[in-house]
C-alpha cells in the first residue's frame, strides 16, 4: 500500500475543517448507515496508526474499510474531518468512575491505558502527538483539546484521593500519574506483537501491582 496520498489523496486532505475549534465537518444528506460509519471510523484509525498523516487519505481508508470512496465523500468534507471524527469517537477518553478508592481508580486507569496503548487508538495517539508538532495548522487544536481532557480527568482521580485523606496532602498528582501512565506506555511499547493478547489478559494484575508499588512502595499491597 502506497504511503503517498497522490493527486486524489491531496484533494481529499485539502478540505478546511468545519465548525468551531476544528470540529468534524460532515455532509448533510440521507440518513447514515451506522454499520458503514463504524467500519470507516475503525479503518480510519487503523490507517492513521499505520501510516500517519502522510499516508492518510480517503482512498486508503475506503480500501481498508471495504467500502467505496463515495461513501466517505457523502459523510465527510475532508480527510482531516474524517480523522478528527475517528479519533474523537475512538473511546480513548479516560472513563474512571469515582468508587471512593484512589487505588482502585488508578488500577482501572492503568488497565484502560494499557489496552489503549496496545491497540490502534494508542498508536494513533502517538502519531497525533508527532503530527501536532509537524503539522500544527492541522492538528494542534485537536491534540491540545484531547490531551487537556485526559490530563484533567486523570488528575481528578489523585486530587479526590488527597481530599479523602487516602493520600498525603503534599502528594503530587503529576508524579503519581507520570509513574502510573508512563509505566503503562513503556510496558506497551516493550511488548512484541506476538504477546499483546497475553499482556492484555494479565493487564489487571500488572496494573494492580504497579499502582501498589507507586502508592505503597511495594507490589501486591492490595
From TrEMBL:
- Which one of the record's GO molecular function terms can you name? transcription cis-regulatory region binding
The UniProt entry, under PROSITE patterns, shows: HTH_TETR_2 (PS50977)
- Cite a single Pfam family from the UniProt record: TetR_N
InterPro entries, per the entry: Homeodomain-like_sf, HTH-type_TetR-like_transc_reg, HTH_TetR, Tet_transcr_reg_TetR-rel_C_sf, TetR_C
Provide the coiled-coil residue spans. Answer: none
Task: Pinpoint the HTH tetR-type domain residues.
Answer: 34-94
Keywords of this entry? DNA-binding, Transcription, Transcription regulation
Q: What's the domain of life for this entry? A: Bacteria
- UniProt biased composition (Low complexity): 1-15
Record feature DNA-binding region, as residue ranges? 57-76
Q: Per the record, which residues fall in region Disordered?
A: 1-34
Q: What is the name of this protein?
A: HTH tetR-type domain-containing protein
The organism of origin for this protein:
Pseudonocardia halophobica
